[in-house]
DNA sequence: GAGGGTCTTGAACGAGCGTTCGACGTGGGC
DNA sequence: GCCCACGTCGAACGCTCGTTCAAGACCCTC
């Protein structure tokens, strides 16, 4: 077998970046994760073949089974790590926010929106491929997603209790907001008409309106 | 081949209902559409095999190609008709609504929410299987979806222009609202804690808050 | 009763699927 | 210098995929 370049390993220099990678991952596992994000994000779990993913990672299909249990195991790893990133970002934003309810909601909305813009494909997979998850892994992922929703529920309820938000349905309003912010991943394109910061600012303002915050 | 019952044709009595069916469709085409809604709604386009769909419809796989061009053609038909139902319901609601901006937005939100609750699987497919659509049909579907979004844009802009809504970003708020209402299809279960009417009422109220309507 | 169009069928096609396996190259420990 | 463990590979496994096809069942028309 002859390749175009002689010395360099073929996978070097490939674009293999994803927020899902962790420092102690082996390079090939990282490349597979990044490739799976690309291919599954574009075609969905069932629409992405192991050969597609391996090819995008610059390796052979067989290597996937050295680093993961199966294609399903790869999906679970992706969803699990993706939700960790999201929950972590939201919790960090809440820790840094002050005591004002509007500031707190604004902070977690901004964090949620930013993750869904910056890790667009990872977010898409985490939201639309839940149905492709099989029994053991599924419960884990659903639990983490519920935890993220409960963060929002708590902040909105707290704001209502303290009189800052006037919505009559705190939990529904919280779900309303998270769903709207999550959907950004379906349409956002870097370099579009609006700067990312501007989108964050607008969604923060609309979210505050949605919970009945009076400016 | 022997079947359990002797006289009745096997497909009679099967649950084959979908809002996508039209009066002049042949019964088998209707059954295939209903089955495709069930199977694709549960597993996605790539996760639903032609054999699965045919089996759910009580027919053979080959029959699909007598009533549709291909599996892809079936998907296009489903998405096309599903969006027709949605746009039609929204336009009808607007026609029946009065002149008051809050009434108008409330009416289209209620219609949008109701369609996504009552035709849950059809809506899920229309929203999450856009990426499985291939070139010729895709543009048609995207155009219809954009038309639905523009209905909301217009109502919100109109309300802002007339001073009823105070949001500073009408188009973003409109997209915020449609995304939140669309997502109902992902979690709503008939017979859940909330009555459908109650969900509609709450989402209408939150949507009005989101565009800055002052009660 | 014969003829023809429509609807339906089981069987088969080649292609691609997820997964497994045995062999190969390589680099650090003895 | 030997060796083993590890990451990697091409090739192949059995299976399912979307699709086609020739033939049968049905029903309306003459």
From TrEMBL, chains A, B:
DNA bind region: 49-68
Superkingdom of the organism of origin: Bacteria
Region (Disordered): 1-25
Keywords from the named record: DNA-binding
InterPro entries in alphabetical order: Homeodomain-like_sf, HTH-type_TetR-like_transc_reg, HTH_TetR, KstR2_TetR_C, Tet_transcr_reg_TetR-rel_C_sf
Residue ranges occupied by any HTH tetR-type domain in the UniProt entry: 26-86
Protein name, UniProt field: TetR/AcrR family transcriptional regulator
Source organism of this protein record: Actinomycetospora endophytica
């Amino acid at each position: 077998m002859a390749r175009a370049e002689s010395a360099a390993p073929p996978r070097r220099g490939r674009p293999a970046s994803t927020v899902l990678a962790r420092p102690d991952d082996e390079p090939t596992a990282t490349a597979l994760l990044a490739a799976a994000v690309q291919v599954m994000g574009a075609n969905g779990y069932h629409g992405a073949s192991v050969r597609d993913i391996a090819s995008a990672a610059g390796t052979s299909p067989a290597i996937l089974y050295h680093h993961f249990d199966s294609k399903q195991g790869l999906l679970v790893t992706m969803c699990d790590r993706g939700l960790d990133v999201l929950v972590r970002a939201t919790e960090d934003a809440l820790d840094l926010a002050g005591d004002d309810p509007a500031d707190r909601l604004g902070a977690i909305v901004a964090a949620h929106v930013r993750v869904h813009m910056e890790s667009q494909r990872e977010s898409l997979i985490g939201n639309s491929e839940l149905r492709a998850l099989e029994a053991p892994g599924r419960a884990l992922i659903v639990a983490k997603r519920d935890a993220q929703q409960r963060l929002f529920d708590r902040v909105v309820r707290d704001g209502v209790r303290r009189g800052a938000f006037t919505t009559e349905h705190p939990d529904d309003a919280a779900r309303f907001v998270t769903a709207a912010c999550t959907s950004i991943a379906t349409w956002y394109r870097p370099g579009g008409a609006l700067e990312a910061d501007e989108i964050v600012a607008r969604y923060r303002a609309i979210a505050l309106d949605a919970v009945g915050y009076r400016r």
